[in-house]
Amino acid sequence: MLCSDEIASLHTYPLLTVAEMRQIEAEANASGLSYAQMMQNAGRAAAEIIDSELAKANPLSSRCEPVNVLLLIGPGNNGGDGLVCGAALREKRPERYKVTAALLRPRDEQAPPYAQAVQQGVTCFVLEGESWRARLHEALDEANVVVDALLGTGIARPIEGTLREVLRLVAEWRGRNRAGKLFALDGITGMNYDTGALDLAAVPADVTVTFHAPKRGHFCFPAAGARGKLYIASIGISQPSAQPSAVLVGEDWVSERLPMRPPDANKGTFGRVLVIGGCAAYVGAPTLAARAAYRVGAGLVALAVPNTIKLAVAALCPEATFIPLPITEDAHTLHSLLPITTWLAHAPATVVLGPGLGQAAPTRDFLRGVLDALRAQPPCGLVVDADALNLLAGEAEWHTLLPPNSVLTPHPGEMARLMGSTVEAVQSDRIGVALEAAQRWGHVVVLKGAHTVIASPKGEAGVLPFANAALAVAGVGDVLAGCVGGLLAQGQSPFVAAVCGAFTHGAAGDTWRSKHGQAGLLARDLLDLLPEALHRLSANAAALPLIHITQELNL
Q1: Angle CA(368)–CA(370)–CA(373) in degrees, nearest 5?
Q2: H or E element at residue 382
Q3: Which residues, listed in sequence order, are joined to residue 331 by a DSSP beta bridge?
Q4: What is the chain's pLDDT, residue by residue, as a tens digit (555 residues)?
Q5: Burial annotation 491-520 (CB, 10 A radius, 16+ → b, else e)
Q6: What whole-number distance in Å separates Cα of residue 208 and Cα of residue 477?
Q7: How far apart are CA 328 and CA 477, in angstroms?
Q8: String of DSSP letters for 422-451
Q9: Gap between the Cα atoms of 441 and 64, Å rounded
Q10: Residue 481 main-chain phi, psi, to 5 deg
Q11: In whole angstroms, what is the distance from residue 129 CA to residue 42 CA?
Q12: Which of 222, 234, 450, 498 is the most exposed place for a label (fewest CB within 10 A)?
């Protein structure tokens, strides 16, 4: 079983769109696993998880204390899952579970899910007529557990009418019954399973049980913040024929791809990184990137920074070599290019371009000159970050100025500027936006944020399991750019380096949070934790919190 707060190991797990899930179900049905059997498997798996969660919540109880369960049953397949779940709870422990089902619409009383529920002693009533509100209010007052089986993946428009009123009453129940538990089947009512958008009427769950595989929306906010603990229940579907466009990345996937560290290595074995950036206003940014590249294993890191800040930067990162750049009026100019091109001509290197670069007008010409030089003599890899992204956003067809398959590391604001869009549009469909942009631009896109998305020009996306408020602080993006650059220098492909670098960065952040909480992290705190995260990943040791998967049904 796989759950959001404990996991032994994980390679990757599909993050499906609604269309992909429907296609998988259709293939399974055509292969002999009927929709009716899938519904039975889903409902029974959900009942097993609910029973297990309630036992964990009260481990000292005899497990015979009565539990009042209220099923909220929609008109579609999600409602069918809920009825099967209620019947399975009654079948498993009839002395423990009193189950009531509130039906949004009347259902066929002869159909198996409904008939099965009634046969097992589930009391059913329909939310219609003049007294339905009072009946529902009474059922909620009696309930210890509410199961949301109203809409599933079928939401297509804003919630209104009776359904909205039902959710309002459930929200009130949650407010006055702190000990009560709300379980959602597949997802909470009101979430968009593709984008993570959430209707204002949606009520957050304590536990979500989704089926076969998580959907994209489970790892996109705001829905990701309302799903509670996420279980993934097997419903008997074998491996689908087509691979999904997005996957949740686990530590095993990263562990298998980290660079080897042969004992007879020297610094040349692990590559060179050149960080180009810095200005009087941003002395620390290039330093953080350089130190991060060292911390993930790069053999040599050089800093190309303005000569006016070279001493300050050297004090912060004495291990680096330096390329002092002549500047004019605190801005990078074309005069700064010669030292950089001369250094790069000496030996190949991965370039991290942008941390603390500044956006003074002459710097735009400098950036163009650097990119012209890199296209003429391609580096081992290019990571474009921070002010370099902001400057590029003002250029027509900017993506053609970069060597192919560069790595871009924008936060949502930078992504919006690159796309000529808005932050709201970017955040409304993070996975879809990152995939579309990577394919259109021909570069790897690392869309930073909660559940960072890494998308490749080939149409594949890796989504990270980390959502950590402690990382919402200046400078952590510079550390991430250095992580990616350091792994690129060691020979990883751009997409793999981006995923592994961002995962290591997120793992280090989770280590800090586990010790110190949600606030107070400084970007430099991550640096010392990066080797620890790499060691844990390399040793495939302590697990990172993700999700739980049920592989078999025990009812």
Answers
A1: 110
A2: strand 381-384
A3: 328
A4: 455 443 334 578 899 999 999 999 999 999 999 999 999 999 999 999 999 999 988 765 545 689 999 999 999 999 999 999 999 999 999 999 999 999 999 999 999 999 999 999 999 999 999 899 999 999 999 999 999 999 988 676 789 999 999 999 999 999 999 899 999 999 999 999 999 999 999 999 999 999 999 999 999 999 999 999 999 999 999 877 678 899 999 999 999 999 999 999 999 999 999 999 999 999 999 999 999 999 999 999 999 999 999 999 999 999 999 999 998 777 788 888 999 999 999 889 999 999 999 999 899 999 999 999 999 988 899 999 999 999 999 999 999 999 999 999 999 999 999 999 999 999 999 999 999 999 999 999 999 999 999 999 999 999 999 999 999 999 999 999 999 999 999 999 999 999 999 999 999 999 999 999 999 999 999 999 999 999 999 875 334 444 555 444 333
A5: bbebbbbbbbbbbbbbbbbbbbbeeeeeee
A6: 31
A7: 27
A8: -HHHHHTTHHHHHHHHHHHHTSEEEE-STT
A9: 60
A10: -60, -40
A11: 31
A12: 222
Q: Check residue 219 and report its DSSP letter.
A: G
Q: What structural domains and CATH numbers belong to the chain?
A: 17-58+65-243 (3.40.50.10260), 252-259+266-539 (3.40.1190.20)
| H or E segment to which residue 365 belongs | helix 361-376
Q: Which residues contact 330 (CB under 8 A, 6 or more apart)?
A: 279, 280, 306, 308, 358, 360
Q: Token pair of 471, please?
A: 């990382």
What is the number of other CB atoms lying within 10 angstroms of the CB of residue 444?
27
For residue 354, with 0-12 CB atoms within 10 Å meaning exposed, 13-18 middle and 19 or more buried, which class applies? buried
pTM: 0.92
Element (H, E) at 12: strand 12-14
Q: Which residue from 66, 147, 62 is spatially nearest to 100, judged by alpha carbons?
A: 147
